[in-house]
């Protein structure tokens, strides 16, 4: 047997053995065979740490125990349940796919990798996860944890985010996959990346595949995996005007393809730089409010998204009567009813910290 093949076999065998004897990472979606629950967990956990996603998974499975229930759900309720998790496009796709499976596929998930890939919001990673966990199909998952383990074990220096790198990693992931027990293998490699082969300070003495690990033996653990693109971060400055009258606050639903689609927010003025209350008064969008009262500054919240740093400043204005906000499709909502609406995390944390809820 060639040394490369021996290393691959060793990896696969030791990894699955470790998973079955030592790996005790216990999460409710592990060993799950129901494609609906696997799909839900995978969508909820994209860009989200497992412990952060856990309460969301429990709430979703309790409120919507199957795909038909989710398809029939009130959309506002689902967005409210998703609140705080971010990347709201996932929620939109989740609802669209639930409706499609319920209406067009009679509530039955496709049972092939190719069929799963046709669903909205399901890419190669999620399709491989569902296909292997639910149906035992021989498809290897490739996410950040897997790239890290493979790059280190095999000593791959090609950036994983290039076309060449993606192809190379996919080939190696398939080569190492235990095709007879793909579900256990996929779970094992993801858990190894999450708990042992971590980005910083990997626990190599505890690692079941350390014997042939190139990165460990050549001192490359801190240098692998390699990423080519640097994330460019755009600074944005939001100014939320909290318009009050009596016991009501004006809010509207965000539309369009930008961030936070379908979530609610107060009146927003975005500017290329930070504005104070006096500068807001002369901003063209402020003219629609037909007020000369100086907005009262209430606080600032900063939020980092993958490609954006959003600095949000909150201002309050009180009116005698309900104002008709020209060109804005919003409504006046009783403050006691605000908790029925889904807000972006920034707005939610401001409202919570300022006792609106
Ligand atoms: S030996 Fe260390 S670097 Fe290599 S795969 Fe295991 S944890 Fe990762």
What does this structure look like?
The protein has 14 helices and 7 strands. Helix content is 41%, strand content 14%. Strands 1, 2, 3, 4, 5, 6 and 7 form a 7-stranded mixed beta sheet that branches. It has 357 residues and is an alpha+beta fold. Iron/sulfur cluster binds at residues 149, 152-153, 196-197, 202, 204, 207, 209-210, 213, 215-216, 221.
CATH architecture of the largest domain: Orthogonal Bundle
What is the 3D form? Answer: elongated
What is Rg? Answer: 24 Å
Helix content: 40-55%
Largest pleated sheet: 7 strands, mixed
Q: How does the helix and strand content classify structurally?
A: alpha+beta
The CATH superfamily of the largest domain turns out to be Hypothetical protein, domain 2
Give the cofactors and ligands: iron/sulfur cluster
Unreliable residue stretches: none
- Termini Cα gap: 66 Å
Do you know the CATH topology of the largest domain? Endonuclease III, domain 1
Mean pLDDT: 92
Whole-number total of structural domains = 2
Number of helices: 14
| Amount of beta strand | 5-15%
* CATH class placement of the largest domain: Mainly Alpha
Series of secondary-structure elements, N-terminal to C-terminal? HHHHHHHHHHHHEEEEHEEEH
Instruction: Tell how many strands the DSSP assignment holds.
Output: 7
């Amino acid at each position: 047997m060639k040394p490369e093949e021996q290393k691959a076999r060793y990896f696969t065998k030791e990894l699955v053995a470790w998973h079955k004897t030592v790996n005790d990472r216990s999460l409710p979606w592990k060993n799950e065979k129901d494609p609906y629950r696997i799909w839900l967990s995978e969508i909820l956990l994209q860009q989200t740490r497992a412990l952060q996603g856990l309460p969301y998974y429990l709430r979703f499975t309790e409120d919507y125990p199957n795909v038909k229930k989710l398809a029939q759900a009130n959309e506002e309720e689902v967005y409210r349940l998703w609140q705080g998790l971010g990347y709201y496009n996932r929620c939109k796709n989740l609802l669209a796919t639930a409706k499609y499976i319920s209406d067009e596929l009679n509530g039955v998930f496709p049972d092939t990798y190719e069929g799963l890939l046709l669903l909205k919001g399901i890419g190669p990673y999620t399709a491989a996860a569902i296909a292997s966990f639910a149906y035992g199909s021989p498809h290897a998952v490739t996410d950040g944890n897997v790239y890290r383990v493979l790059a280190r074990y095999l000593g791959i220096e090609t950036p994983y985010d290039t076309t060449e790198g993606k192809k190379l990693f996919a080939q190696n992931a398939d080569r190492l996959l235990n095709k007879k027990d793909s579900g256990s293998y996929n779970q094992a490699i993801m858990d190894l990346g999450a708990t042992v082969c971590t980005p910083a300070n990997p626990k190599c003495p505890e690692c079941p595949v350390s014997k042939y690990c190139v990165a460990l033996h050549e001192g490359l653990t801190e240098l692998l995996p390699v990423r080519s693109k640097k994330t460019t971060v755009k600074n944005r400055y939001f100014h939320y005007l909290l318009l009050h009258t009596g016991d009501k606050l004006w809010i509207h639903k965000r539309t369009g393809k930008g961030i936070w689609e379908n979530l609610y927010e107060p009146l927003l003025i975005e500017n290329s730089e930070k504005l104070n209350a006096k500068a807001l008064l002369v901003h063209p969008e402020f003219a629609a409010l037909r007020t000369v009262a100086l907005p009262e500054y209430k606080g600032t919240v900063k939020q980092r998204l993958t490609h954006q740093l959003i600095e949000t400043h909150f201002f309050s204005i009180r009116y005698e009567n309900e104002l008709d906000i020209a060109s804005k499709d919003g409504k006046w909502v009783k403050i006691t009813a605000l908790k029925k609406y889904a807000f972006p995390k920034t707005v939610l944390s401001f409202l919570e910290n300022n006792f609106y809820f």
